[in-house]
Amino acid sequence: MSVCQYYLRGNCRYGDRCRLSHVNDQYGPPYRPRGPRPQFDP
What we know:
Elements: H1 5-8
C-alpha cells in the first residue's frame, strides 16, 4: 500500500479515513521538510 504524501507532510485531511497508508509511530515521526535555507552573500 502506498504511503500518504499528505500525511508525511503533516496535513492529511482524511485522517483515519484515508485510503492510503499512514506510517506507524514505530517508524518514527512523519517527515517534515524544512524550509529553504538562508542564503549568505560573502
